[in-house]
Design brief:
By secondary structure, the protein is mainly β. The chain is built from one helix and 15 strands.
């Protein structure tokens, strides 16, 4: 009986390693969104971004000169990047069954616009953006962040409230 179990285990291991050697893909992390618009040079990590490219937590997304990119998250939040922008998707949670949601991104010194989707309707939600100049806590639906006459600031669009805290960026 022990000999049969050993042979079965050896067969299983042989098939497993054979499958790996033929490039059976490993499980990927769940996608939090996808690229829905791209103009000129844009990347997700080291890969070229294209319409339909998946975006995952931890991905660094960036655009080149005269470039634009839009990500649509699973809840229909839209994040649009201007030229020479860089954003990292730090965290995304969307659980309508428990009415909870969280979207946390960090960005460099470039323009972007965020129009929140269903996550803004959740009872327990956190939407925040860390920039080199301040941390933004968003309580609304649509806003833009970027340079205006050489200075950075948030321009509120639609029914939004944004809290700006400098102290969190000094850590």
């Amino acid at each position: 009986m022990h000999r049969a179990n050993g042979a079965t285990l050896l067969r299983f291991l042989a098939i497993f390693f054979l499958a790996l050697s033929f490039g059976v893909p490993l499980a990927r992390a769940a996608s939090v969104g996808m690229v829905t618009k791209v103009e000129n040079q844009a990347q997700i990590g080291s890969s070229q971004a294209a319409v339909g490219s998946e975006v995952q937590t931890g991905d660094q997304v960036h655009t080149g000169p005269k470039s634009r990119l839009e990500i649509t998250f699973r809840d229909n939040t839209k994040l649009s990047l201007g030229e020479n922008a860089q954003v990292v998707v730090d965290r995304f949670v969307f659980n309508p069954d428990q009415s909870t949601g969280e979207l946390v991104v960090s960005t460099g010194a470039a323009a972007f616009r965020m129009a929140t989707g269903k996550i803004s309707q959740m009872q327990n939600k956190t939407i925040s953006v860390s920039t080199p100049f301040a941390a933004l806590a968003v309580r609304g639906t649509d806003y833009w962040w970027g340079p205006t006459e050489g200075h950075y600031g948030a321009l509120l669009v639609s029914h939004s409230r944004v809290e700006v805290r400098k102290d969190e960026c000094d850590k």
